[in-house]
Amino acid sequence: MVFLENQDWKRHRKIANPAFQQVIPHKVFGRLTIQMFGVIDQSIEMRTSIEIGDVLKRLTLNALTLAGFGFDINALNDPSNEWLRTYENIIVGMQDPVYFFFPVLERHFLNFLPKRKLIHRDCDRFLKLMDDMIEEKRRIVNEDEGIVVAEKKEDISEKDILTLLLENEKNENDSNTFMTNEELKSNLCLFFSAGHDSTTGALSFALYHMAVNPDIQLKARADVVNVLGNSKSDVLPTSAQTKEMKYLNMVIKETLRIQPSVPVASARKAKEDCTLGDVFIPKDTVLLIDIYNTHRNPITWDEPHKFNPDRFRPGGEAEQKISGEFGNPWIPFGNGARQCIGMQFSLEEQKVVLSMLLRKYTWSLPKDSIHEDEVITKGIFFVVAKDLQLNFKSRY
To answer: Which positions does UniProt annotate for heme binding (predicted)?
Structure first.
């Protein structure tokens, strides 16, 4: 969907937009966060720090398999399970710069690259799983065709994305609005690869900035407690409740500004000669939007390298800049018609996970942290905090 244009892109988005607007599985996010509590509690009992990035990666991946097509890989309770290992191998293989910049190696010398062959084998197995899921979901949707079921809105929101894509396709009167099984698989693969690491990065950076700014962590916790209460028990926030967490939402937006987990937008090609500012851009020029430096541009942001959630207060700096002469300088999900289709999914996942963590724990960097002076990152296409060790203390 990212690379399609014209009518093909419109055909895909017409089916996908309603599905992604409907699927905000707060219950899934909440249940997985409670599972994550068990992993964190183990580190507390052992009086050790925990590499939170690895735990968040397992949570976000499990959220995607459940929300994508209702498949539970049990990543938090069983970190050595086969499907988690398979998917991690694929992701690592996709981001290997050697094969990204020199694809000829795979095309002509794969038989002489045993480790790379194993990654291809894992990829084939994962794609076969998706093929089977698509066929099974299509069969179920076809069998249910014509059956009218009165469903509550919250029940629809907990359906998996694949089911909703197929149902939306069935509900369209336009015979040209469809996705082949191969197109469905490609879009689900995109959703997994883009949604997994990007949300992991956003969550890890938010935890880092609240660890090194305890006053901000305290204000965010007070905001959450004001909405969810301070009882000594786990609470799964609803969609309405996450909207009330004004300060936490400001923290999330500022995190995405100062440390976007997707630092560069996908490449686009100019369809005709045009001028951007004072720069002439010839037709067919390949363009990239530098999100990271746009977010840290001193021309558009006051003290751009300072972590300051208050800039996102109603009527504050961010609102003024977004509606001012510079256009929109906050673009962690892009903007316009091609804005990331999973934006609301990611934002709601962040709100649920962070609000539940704030009620349950306080956290800080260990004394020997590599992030003592600034956050150290890793990754090319998707950036996360490198080896982010945190010390957690339970509040109940």
So the answer is: 340
